[in-house]
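Sample A.
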Amino acid sequence: MQCGRTMAAAFVLTIAGLVLCLSGFAEENKDFVPGEDSGFYYTIKKGDTLWDLSQKFYNSEWDWPGLWEMNQEIKNPHWIYPGRKIRIFLKEKAALAPETAKAEEVKQESPPENIIPSFSFSEMDRIGFIKEKADPDLGSVIRDQDGKIIMSSNDIIYITPSGKGTLIPGNLYHVFSVSPVERKAKDGNFSGVRHLLHARIEILEHKTTYATAKVVKAYREIREGNLIMAYNKREPVLTVDENPSPVKAKILCSEDDNIIINDHRIAFIDVGSALVRPGQIYSVMRGIGSAGKSLWPENSKDQVKFDPVTAGKLIVLHTEAVSSTVMILSSKYEINPGDIIN
């Protein structure tokens, strides 16, 4: 009897170990899924190799180990398959010495192939925006079913309809808040209304004087008085344009009014859909001594005006008429409201 129990236990452990191994293998071979994962990616075409892609993206075939390291589901760098999406990284192109540049021009008989990467941002639906005026609301949050002051995911909330639209049971909506954005500058003033998205909700019931909803996903805390708007799903995958036409723009602020807007933070710039489009990448420039950081007192005779330096890179995620929502991709120096976009 004891022997039978031992064999059964060993069998269970063997099966459990096999399940763990298989689950680990599946996780190890997880592919990059645009829209669910965030980052830059490229779709492999017939005839591509990691060496060729390294040369095309980075002007050096010897950067291929970096591509391989970022895509651990590729078991053999000699074998990559058309249609598969791989992660890529974007970096500054190194400046060539004049002699090297001339040699490259002579060697290059035909122009390089234009490789167009894409950018995937899984949280595209939750980013805020700035409009000239506040969007009309469909209602406002009264309270949580359990009387919580701060509401979050899976909570049931009560909403007072505004009468400006219909809250339809089964449909998704956004909880949002608004705040003014003002910027006074010598080259012109900016005035708009920032819309911050707090949560995605689903309407459960619509009574005569109120509606109930479930918080499907909270992005930030929900409080009494927060407003309701229709849920608009945004395209999470953008075609990248690394060389857009220059624009004259500045950073207005970040979503959360951070003094320093560092990597991966969401911010807003003061140009809109007439001049920029989603997927465009720009440099963030700052003059030494700009943004209130003078190196000497204003009345000093030793003041020197320096050329702007590149502080970082950003990508445009969403555009409105008067502004655009951007993400800081990378930063060499601190980035602040008022810094210039080039």
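Sample B.
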Amino acid sequence: MAVSLSAGVRNNLATLQSTAAQSSQIQNRLATGKKVNSAIDSPVNFFTAASLNDRSSQLNGLLDGISNGIQAIQAASKGIDGITKLVGSLQSTIKQAQADAAQNRPTKAGTAIATQAEVVATSKSLKDIALDKKLVDDNAGTANDATATYSGNIGITAGSTDIGISIVAGSTTYTASFSAANATVRDLVNEINKSGIATAFVDEKGQLNVKGTGSDALQVGIGASAVSGTAAITDADTGGANTNIGFAAADRTGAGIPSSGITSAVRSNLIDQYNDLRNKIDDLAKDAGYNGINLLGGDRLSVVFNEKTGKNQTKLDVQGTQLNSDNLGIVKAGNTQLAGSTNFQNDSDLEAATKSLTGALTSLKSLSSTFGASLSVVQTRQDFTKDMANVLTSGADNLVNADLNQEAASLLALQTRQQLSQQALALANQADQGVLRLLG
């Protein structure tokens, strides 16, 4: 049997049902924190937010790859820092070797150009007599002896107006000429010393000595000519006047004056230290990888910056380089002159090694700068990707998230309305109860 409700009761009941439905909806929003929980609530907002959240999730997924890329570049950068320190240690080793004088420099001592008889005649030392002697025969005689009134000469052909010198050490050649007028052995010594590749002096025995400043075989030639210009140098190239200073023509031509063959023990002991440091460069470069990528081993690093594919994808490719001692121009050290090695007994080789190490440092700085620029780009994109993901997430939240303060206030208002509706329903029921009292 159907129960018939009065109009007042029915209206109040409908109000209570509506209030309960709204209260339930608001409670759901408070529980989930969202005002749009499904496409039914708002199709546009729901699917737009889903799209934004999906892209944000993809960008966050790229952050791991970007982070790995940063670490790979930083690992290479740390490797370069370590290699730079090792190259600095190699430079120190070279300086230690250079600080110890080479023992194998080519040295030549001529025959004495002063005699004891001249000492008696002049009351000078053999050294001073030899230094004061003129180079060219200017007394129209064969005697070269010094006397109390004459300095003597070493007998270069009379009438010579120019004296020439020609000196070769390794790949370096020095030639010069000067006036023969009144020129002495002392002038010759000074001219040889100007070359920079050989030094000359007269010893206490009255002998002219010439020593190479490096360890390369040395060629020394003295010449003369009555014709100004290059004629004296041409004669020096064949050692034309070498016999006058106690040298042979062969001291200018052919193999020249060889090194002494004596090695420095200090330099020899530094060879193993140098080669060990050189090998450590190769080892360090091999260990500078991260997660399978070694930019110092020639690997290629690709860092993806967006979620797209094909032509629309943005990424940075960082090409590594095969970094090792050979590529840096750092060759092995040894005690002998071999192709592709540094002879620690040779001053010229040590100087060349110093230049090579300076060049290696320049290459390392350039490579470090290149990696630094790439690292800056990747770090910038990392920050951008994080910010972009946050922007997308915030945009999605703005579309579907509920204002909890507003929803809480609305729920409180509904609860108050619900209480009032319940009281109104009670009042409506009191009218029906009055009919019952009349019937009783």
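B remarks: The first helix runs from residue 7 to 32. Residues 107-251 form one domain.
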